[in-house]
Amino acid sequence: MNTISRRRFLKISGLGLGAASLAGLSPRRLGATAAASAGTVRAVPTYCDICFWKCNAIAHVRDGRLWKITGNPEDPLSRGRLCPRGTGGIGTVTDPDRLQSPLIRRKARGGEEWVEVTWDEAFDYIAGKLQKIKVEHGPEAVALFSHGIGGAFLKHTFKAYGTPNIAAPSFAQCRGPRDAGFLLTFGEDIGSPERTDIRNARCIVLIGSHLGENMHNTQVQEFAEALGKGATVIVADPRFSVAASKAKYYLPVKPGSDIALLLAWMNVIVTEELYDQAFVEQHGFGFENFKAEIVERTPEWAYLETGIPPEKIRESAREMARHRPATLVHPGRHATWYGDDTQRSRAIALLNALLGSWGRKGGFYYPSSMDVPGYPYQPYPKSGRGKVDNPGKKYPFAHETISTGIREATISGQPYPVKGWFVYATNLIHALPNEAETLKAIQALDLLVVVDVIPSEIAGWADVVLPEATYLERYDELNVEYFRDPFVALRQPVVEPPGDQKPNWWIARELAFKLGLGEYYPWQDIEEYLDYRLAGAGLSLGTLKEKGLVKGTPAPAFFDEGVEALWPTPSGKVEFYSLQLERAGFDPVPRHQRQKEGPPGSFRLLYGRAPVHSFSRTQTNPILRDAMPENDVWLNASVGARLGLRSGDYVRLRNQDDVLSSPIKVRVTEAIRPDCVYMVHGFGHTAKGLRSAFGVGASDAQLITRYETDPLMGGTGMNVNFVSIEREN
Amino acid sequence: MARFGMAIDTTKCVGCMDCIVACKTENDVPDGYCRDWIAKRVEGRMPDLRMTITSERCNHCDNPPCVTCCPTGASHVHVYGKIVLVDHGKCIGCKACVASCPYGARFMHPDGYADKCTFCIHRVDKGQLPACVEVCPTRCMTFGDLDDPQSEVSRLVAGRKHFVLKPDAGTGPRIFYLE
Ligand code: SF4
Ligand code: SF4
Ligand code: SF4
What we know:
heterodimer; A: seven-stranded mixed beta sheet; six-stranded mixed beta sheet; 24 helices; globular; B: alpha+beta
């Protein structure tokens, strides 16, 4: 007994529990009472797909059935711990609302009446339409909207078909302005996973970013690690978020005034000469011009814009300076708020530049990746017409395809018609602002195909719906991670799909053959493809199947580790003053502009994330639904009192364009400013097939009828809608 | 003899519910039920606010009313780590224990017995940590022997300011929340 128990203790100590902690204990045999999880267990390494973070996971199959999913201890991203969504990932497999077989529409679009067809029939239908569009309008008249790594093979098929119009809402509806702002300043973007060295930060500044509710696994883990090491936190947010509750300085900034706050922080740091003068002198361009503007932006000026007392602005700025260069002003991720978002992101970049945090520990690191050569496909056909989304480079600093630009072109037929949409794993009805415009564009289409796991809202409008196998039932493209610790990871099937669902690589390949593009798929089978690529890196599929990931050697990640400070900007320096912006007619140094207010008695609608849901795609996952079945709307206590509302009451929200939400529960709380309301994104489903989520909670997307387009890169600022509150009886 | 308990660092916990989701899958907790849960308390007025987030579950109390009130002995203090367990076979489903727990830690399993957190004793017995502790992305939970002054959990409880839930109930809860 003793020997056994000692061995047990050693194992525990390896897991981080002090070896001495259980010494002296002699465990007894447990009765049937506490024994759980008997049976034979098989463990299969793979990587998660509940969000785009791609944590490496181990799926445990007990007696042939999926039991649980845990983090792969070897994984630099999850560090052995998945986030709650990843932990609840088996619910995507057991979701009773899953799509079962290919469907072709029977009635008018959006009627959600279907006939089940075979894959062959579905492909024949799709291929027929795609060929016709190609003949009549050219291959560019088909657009692919694709989110996540699963879309890799469909992208390949559509590039082979001849269209350059491939977009993801993750650019113009999410991180696009952030990346554009950093590109304009440092010549490099932030990427995903964010290149933020949170774990070494001594001071973390979050502007609207609600880490902890927003569960990007590594970020949250490192945030907690930094807190444990005594890092101070500064949070500017109209809502007292979880992150705000960890902050030394919580600044309940007036919605839309973040740029004013950022400018005032820079004013304090510049005028009090607290900035990293060596960095600025060596690497900065246009600092004197920048300074001339920034000296005007005093905390007293910013107080009127932000509502934050000047002393708080000064103190928090000094706190940042005290810890530099290990002060990380986090660039955020979902950055499409007001249409001035690239300039706000540039202000964040500039504040980081003043603090000298780029390329320094506790700031921004230089990621690296392993060299895994691509598959040697034959070249894609060249498109003579260019992309449809950004005619005449209307948005000069858009460095990726603008999804809403494709939508606009589909409606107007300009610069050329778009007649087919192929949508992979993105619910455009919830992802794009102004549903009416999306529906108008859909009406102009000859073909809308949706590939998804669940019958999402966008699937409801499709002509053909193709049911995809979940990530636990399929192979996918390799994840060659670009991170602080590079690795290559495999997603592999753990269980069989329960119905006629197929992996996306198979869908993309079959479709290519139907389109006469078989020469683009010289490999017969995905395993052959993966093995070929891995062999190019001196690895094998067998190794990856067994281990899930193989790590590379980390390259230097910071200047003091030997990274050379090169700035791929026009000046070759960090651009405090941007001549390229000036030439294009924009502010060379960010300026604050007051946001329009809503009608009297209305509240600005803000939205965010919950730790147990991803976008609008997990609300029917039975495990995650149990953790959070519905969203609620946060109202300031004074507003609740005025309207006679209490927590738990139900209301509907009516926006400025008379759109009325479904009923949503109220949370009356001090934890939000009185001029705005807040809800978690992704609820209020209207697709009939999402039976367990239908009409539960309200949809922010439905209420986002207005948006402000970022003139620099075409992003859609969505925090510009106002709602009034109506009691639901 | 060990006396298992937990210390949970509320300065790190973000209320993400990973602990709940991991418990559900690990222990096959049926849909609509959970053995652990998150409580968030917000105090103060904007902008001077304070939020306390607690990951809660059975406290494996030193003086467990759920055990003393049980007419069949199904609810018992197990010799292993002094954890409070329910023998499903002996439980007659009278719900006395559910009513007696001041923390609401117990529920009636659809199969007819009283159920709650077991400190994942089936895992601990194999040298693993409870599922909630092992999954927590903020690593805010520490599990171990409170009777061993050298254990990490004992050192945290001894060295850090902390609170327990409903100290006045006299139950002697063994989950300590670090502040
Ligand atoms: S962050 Fe969570 S949902 Fe995203 S990949 Fe990691 S475990 Fe999965
Ligand atoms: S998993 Fe950890 S951080 Fe998340 S709620 Fe539970 S105890 Fe808190
Ligand atoms: S928390 Fe409740 S169920 Fe657990 S031991 Fe204490 S009284 Fe019993």
